[in-house]
């Protein structure tokens, strides 16, 4: 074993192989398992055929897998350098989508780039994680105590949040805000500052409600009382609850979920795919999926803790947080616990942009893992010493 | 302070030195806090899911079942209507329709345009198609045209490649093989309107029809049947995924009429071009064997839609083709009313059959002179002669003495001026006027009104069906009700037996006196209707003529001696009426004939009634004048187009 490691280190041409070797393949297997669950469910959502959902999704996952491994090879130093440009690109795309984007189902916006549908808001989340991590990495922990150093990253967060809200995509805006907040917290923001900022939140919320779109307000109202509009805004939630409930403990059986197979379930291949799983596989299947998701999240968090550089820690935490918030919003939504918003279940739901960006995020996470022992940045001199 | 201490603790656990990587300890602690929150949040979701799936699972499972099962009703086939020998009078035929499945064509309007070059569509069709397109889901077909001929279908099939989404489908349409012959009796059907649907949800089913006239209307509910249902698994937009359960409906009942289609045909041809109506009734049980009203109309036009021009033509026609004159035409009965007046007189006890009245040709009452139809009078007449000669003065006098109330009571007993129990809509009651009725309308009842009522003029109005009923009751002494429905799904009702009908309660000797008077009208010398004598061996007929003025004849005209109603314009000529029954000694059939503006009952109505009665008697299988044909014996396999017997001319 030692010899083998030495061999890999000795020969520069083996360095890539060595890096590949150090990828957490257990984590990759976990990702593939969840994607497999997605494939199987999409097969059912397509009425027991690989088309139109399952097969394209598998192809996307294959592309995403290659992307993930590639990104995992990138050294953090390089990532820090490209974080700024990537962030600027994401803001340009967000502005572009506001002006020339296509709108689907009321609120999702995408751009057509080279025949591909690109959802800039998905990409913006990854870019924001990188940009924030790079910023906090650069200013080092020592400067976290000075609120002035926190103003630029606050704008880094607010800019995409405002742009996504304008789309308008409430769910994604909340997730972006959540990612930003969690990274501020993890980077070591002082508690007194946090307290100072959290206190006025209720008043801000009141103000925000007054400026929400009618349909966004309708979502909140429906959320509070879904039966008030059973065929309108509340339809999705009620049908989803019926599907969940009819699944029972062991489910109605694969390919036999009546709600999903009979199209009562709205957007069963995207936002409500978890409902389909719960209907066909029952509580047992649904909890298994939740368990898999939790393993991925906690695994990512452990990778963050294990990293010896600030940048890697923050990237890994941001990505894990993104994945967690994704799952949280989507699952709460299908269970009728929060208002409906166009947030898919990562890895499982049908959709190209979301899949590729999730895989991009996992690539960054694995890069953190691969380069977990590399110590760089913050203070070059410290490293020297 | 607490935080600081913890940091120190945790840093001890970590193998990395704090000085070299400041903030790592804070990060680790805060990341662990996040992990706890994440695990807690997903755990909470798993708990919520447990509530939804396991605890409330049953409730949601029930909701899911009702979500996916859609119950649809199947339109039952409408019952047939057949005549007394099983000949179909109203039937269901296949109706070939061209449908367009909007979701199967990319260019709906283009497909409709190309279709219209093959099968022309008029503006009404186009408007209806556009309306259905707007309201229906894309997988529910829209009807382009129905009632396609074979040739039209062939043309559509030939052009099928250029007509994506167009398919040919078969529904049913109501057909009336006898057309105008029975239009008034059978009526017709039409698609239900919103009010019908509000009353019965069954009618919302496609292809359901509602009877709009005749037996189709009166027996509508029996003809409709019971809807079957099919439970289907549907998806959220209503598309059928699979069939779960099917309950076949009950087809509508087959209604067997009392009508004899062959006789009806004969009566119609006897009437010819005259505007008239005739009723042939079995006077023992009230079965209506034939009921003709001319002119008639083609009922099949209603199923496919009546054009505006046709409708105007019908409604403006003074001969009223749409009205069944036998039940909805009211006429003064004229002299046919006299037997009823006589019965009132006899029953009152004020008259006996042998009491005589002197007829000088007129009767003066209170300064008004009432003329007899004979200017020279009939001399001294008793009841028998008064009926035979149809002496007006005798009945003027009788009416004057008996009074209108008694006459009305007896007339009502005979069925005149009453609502009869016939299975037809839009019947009229007619009227036997009484002083009470007149006063209710704020008019004064004059003695003269009673006197003219004695000869069936004035306000008296009856329908031809009432006349036939009256004749039947007079002939049998039983209170028969005319009816058209004889059997339901082949089962005879109790009405078919004569004993079902109660006695009228009129003394037989009085009835016999009236019958003999009516016998004299036809068969004795100087009777008013010698033309009504039957040419059949061993069978005689009794009858009564009637001529009902539609306009008062002025005294000047009458006294000028040149009055001849035949010279009047058609619409001013009197109606010609005749009622009769036969055989005289064992009454079996009653016939009433009203020819609008036919001038005199004796010349116009009596021969017609004789011919109708002859046809009726010759077709009677019981009379054995002709052997009953096969088709009569076996009603199940009707020989529709060959009548049971032919009249030897």
Automatic annotation (TrEMBL), chain A:
Catalytic activity as recorded in UniProt: [GlcNAc-(1->4)-Mur2Ac(oyl-L-Ala-gamma-D-Glu-L-Lys-D-Ala-D-Ala)](n)-di-trans,octa-cis-undecaprenyl diphosphate + beta-D-GlcNAc-(1->4)-Mur2Ac(oyl-L-Ala-gamma-D-Glu-L-Lys-D-Ala-D-Ala)-di-trans,octa-cis-undecaprenyl diphosphate = [GlcNAc-(1->4)-Mur2Ac(oyl-L-Ala-gamma-D-Glu-L-Lys-D-Ala-D-Ala)](n+1)-di-trans,octa-cis-undecaprenyl diphosphate + di-trans,octa-cis-undecaprenyl diphosphate + H(+)
InterPro entries in UniProt: Cell_cycle_FtsW-rel_CS (IPR018365), FtsW/RodA (IPR001182), RodA/MrdB (IPR011923)
E.C. designation(s): 2.4.99.28
Keyword tags: Cell inner membrane, Cell membrane, Cell shape, Cell wall biogenesis/degradation, Glycosyltransferase, Membrane, Peptidoglycan synthesis, Transferase, Transmembrane, Transmembrane helix
Protein's pathway: Cell wall biogenesis; peptidoglycan biosynthesis
Superkingdom per UniProt: Bacteria
Family matches, as Pfam families: FTSW_RODA_SPOVE
Major localization class: membrane
Residue stretches spanning the membrane: 20-42, 54-74, 86-103, 148-164, 170-186, 281-302, 314-338, 350-370
GO CC terms in record: cell division site; plasma membrane
Gene Ontology terms: biological process: cell division; cell wall organization; peptidoglycan biosynthetic process; regulation of cell shape
Membrane topology field: Multi-pass membrane protein
Compartments, as annotated in UniProt: Cell inner membrane; Membrane
An example molecular function term from Gene Ontology annotations: peptidoglycan glycosyltransferase activity
Role played: Peptidoglycan polymerase that is essential for cell wall elongation.
Family, as annotated: Belongs to the SEDS family. MrdB/RodA subfamily.
Entries under PANTHER family matching the protein: CELL CYCLE PROTEIN, PEPTIDOGLYCAN GLYCOSYLTRANSFERASE MRDB
Protein name per Swiss-Prot or TrEMBL: Peptidoglycan glycosyltransferase MrdB
Taxonomic source organism: Acetobacter malorum
Lineage: Bacteria, Pseudomonadati, Pseudomonadota, Alphaproteobacteria, Acetobacterales
Gene of this entry: mrdB
């Amino acid at each position: 074993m030692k010899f083998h490691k030495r061999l890999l280190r000795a020969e520069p041409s083996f360095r890539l192989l060595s890096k590949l070797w150090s990828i957490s393949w257990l984590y990759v297997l976990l990702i593939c398992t969840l994607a497999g669950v997605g494939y199987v469910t999409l097969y059912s959502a397509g009425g027991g055929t690989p088309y139109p959902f399952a097969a394209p999704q598998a192809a996307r996952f294959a592309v995403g897998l290659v992307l993930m491994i590639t990104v995992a090879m990138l050294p953090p130093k390089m990532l820090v350098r490209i974080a700024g440009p990537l962030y600027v690109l994401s803001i340009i795309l967000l502005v572009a989508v506001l002006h020339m984007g296509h709108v689907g189902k009321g609120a999702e916006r995408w751009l057509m780039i080279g025949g591909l549908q690109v959802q800039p808001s998905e990409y913006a989340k990854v870019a924001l994680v990188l940009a924030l991590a790079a910023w906090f990495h650069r200013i080092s922990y020592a400067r976290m105590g000075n609120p002035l150093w926190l103003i630029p990253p606050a704008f880094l967060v607010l800019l995409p949040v405002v742009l996504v809200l304008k789309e308008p995509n409430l769910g994604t805006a909340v997730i972006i805000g959540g990612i930003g907040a969690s990274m501020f917290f993890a980077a070591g923001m002082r508690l007194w500052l946090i307290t100072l900022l959290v206190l006025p939140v209720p008043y801000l919320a009141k103000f925000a409600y007054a400026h929400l779109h009618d349909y966004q307000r309708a979502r909140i109202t429906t959320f509070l009382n879904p039966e008030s509009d059973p065929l309108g805004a509340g339809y999705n939630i009620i049908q989803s609850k019926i599907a969940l409930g009819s699944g029972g403990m062991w489910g109605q059986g694969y390919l036999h979920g009546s709600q999903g197979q009979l199209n009562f379930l709205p957007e069963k291949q995207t936002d409500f795919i978890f409902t389909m799983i719960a209907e066909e596989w029952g509580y047992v299947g649904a909890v298994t999926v939740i368990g898999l998701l939790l393993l991925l999240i906690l695994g990512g968090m452990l990778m963050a803790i294990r990293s010896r550089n600030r940048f890697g820690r923050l990237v890994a935490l941001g990505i894990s947080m993104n994945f967690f918030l994704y799952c949280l919003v989507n699952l709460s939504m299908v269970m009728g616990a929060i208002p409906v918003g166009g947030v898919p279940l990562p890895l499982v739901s049908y959709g190209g942009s979301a899949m590729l960006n999730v895989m991009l995020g996992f690539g960054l996470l694995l890069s953190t893992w691969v380069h977990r022992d590399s110590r760089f940045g913050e203070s070059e001199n410290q490293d020297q010493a | 302070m607490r935080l600081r201490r913890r940091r120190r603790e945790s840093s001890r656990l970590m193998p990395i030195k704090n000085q070299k990587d400041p903030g790592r300890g804070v990060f680790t602690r805060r990341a662990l806090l996040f992990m706890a929150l994440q695990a807690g949040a997903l755990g909470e979701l798993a708990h919520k899911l447990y509530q939804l799936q396991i605890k409330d699972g049953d409730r949601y499972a029930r909701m899911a079942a009702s979500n996916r099962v859609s119950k649809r009703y199947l339109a039952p086939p409408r019952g047939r209507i057949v005549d007394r020998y099983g000949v179909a009078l109203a039937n269901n035929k296949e109706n070939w329709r061209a449908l367009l499945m909007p979701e199967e064509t990319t260019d709906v309007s283009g497909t409709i345009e190309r279709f219209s070059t093959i099968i022309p569509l008029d503006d009404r069709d186009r408007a209806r198609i556009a309306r259905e397109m707007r309201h229906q889901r894309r997988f529910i077909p829209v009807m382009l045209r129905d009632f396609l001929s074979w040739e039209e279908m062939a043309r559509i099939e030939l052009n099928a490649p250029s007509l994506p989404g167009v398919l040919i489908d078969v529904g049913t349409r109501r057909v009336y093989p006898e057309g105008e012959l029975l239009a008034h009796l059978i009526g017709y059907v039409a698609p239900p309107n919103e009010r019908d649907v509000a009353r019965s949800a069954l009618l919302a089913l496609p292809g359901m029809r509602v009877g709009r006239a005749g037996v189709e209307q009166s027996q509508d509910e029996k003809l409709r049947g019971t809807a079957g249902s099919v439970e289907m698994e549907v998806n959220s937009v209503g598309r059928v995924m699979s069939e779960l359960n099917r309950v076949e409906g009950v087809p509508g009942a087959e209604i067997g009429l009392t009508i004899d289609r062959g006789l009806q045909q004969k009566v119609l041809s006897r009437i010819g071009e005259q505007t008239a109506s005739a009723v042939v009734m079995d006077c023992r049980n009230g079965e209506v064997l034939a009921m003709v009203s001319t002119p008639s109309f083609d009922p099949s036009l209603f199923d496919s839609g009546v054009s505006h021009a046709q409708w105007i033509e019908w409604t403006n026609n003074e001969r009223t083709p749409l009205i069944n004159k036998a039940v909805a035409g009211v006429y003064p009965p004229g002299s046919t009313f006299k037997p009823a007046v006589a019965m009132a007189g006899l029953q009152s006890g004020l008259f006996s059959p042998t009491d005589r009245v002197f007829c000088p040709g007129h009767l003066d009452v209170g300064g008004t002179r009432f003329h007899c139809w004979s200017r020279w009078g009939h001399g001294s007449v008793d009841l028998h002669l008064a009926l035979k000669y149809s002496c007006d003065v005798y009945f003027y006098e009788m009416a004057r003495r008996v009074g209108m109330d008694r006459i009305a009571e007896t007339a009502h007993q005979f069925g005149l001026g009453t609502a009869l129990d016939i299975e037809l809509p839009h019947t009229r009651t007619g009227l036997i006027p009484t002083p009470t009725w007149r006063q209710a309308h704020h008019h004064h009842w004059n003695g003269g009104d009673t006197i003219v009522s004695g000869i069936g003029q004035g306000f008296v109005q009856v329908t031809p069906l009432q006349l036939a009923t009256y004749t039947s009751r007079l002939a049998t002494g039983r209170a028969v009700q005319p009816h058209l429905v004889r059997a339901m799904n082949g089962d005879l009702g109790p009405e078919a037996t004569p004993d079902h009908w109660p006695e009228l309660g009129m003394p037989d000797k009085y009835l016999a006196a009236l019958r003999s008077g009516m016998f004299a009208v036809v068969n004795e010398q100087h009777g008013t209707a010698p033309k009504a004598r039957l040419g059949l061996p061993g069978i005689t007929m009794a009858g009564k003529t009637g001529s009902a003025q539609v306009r008062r004849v002025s005294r000047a005209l009458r006294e000028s001696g040149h009055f001849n109603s035949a010279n009047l314009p058609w619409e001013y000529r009197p109606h010609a009426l005749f009622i009769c029954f036969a055989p005289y000694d064992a009454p079996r059939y009653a016939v009433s004939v009203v020819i609008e503006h036919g001038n005199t009952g004796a010349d116009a109505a009596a021969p017609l009634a004789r011919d109708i009665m002859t046809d009726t008697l010759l077709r009677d299988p019981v009379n054995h004048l002709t052997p009953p044909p096969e088709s009569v014996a076996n009603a199940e396999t009707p020989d529709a187009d060959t009548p049971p017997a032919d009249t030897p001319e």
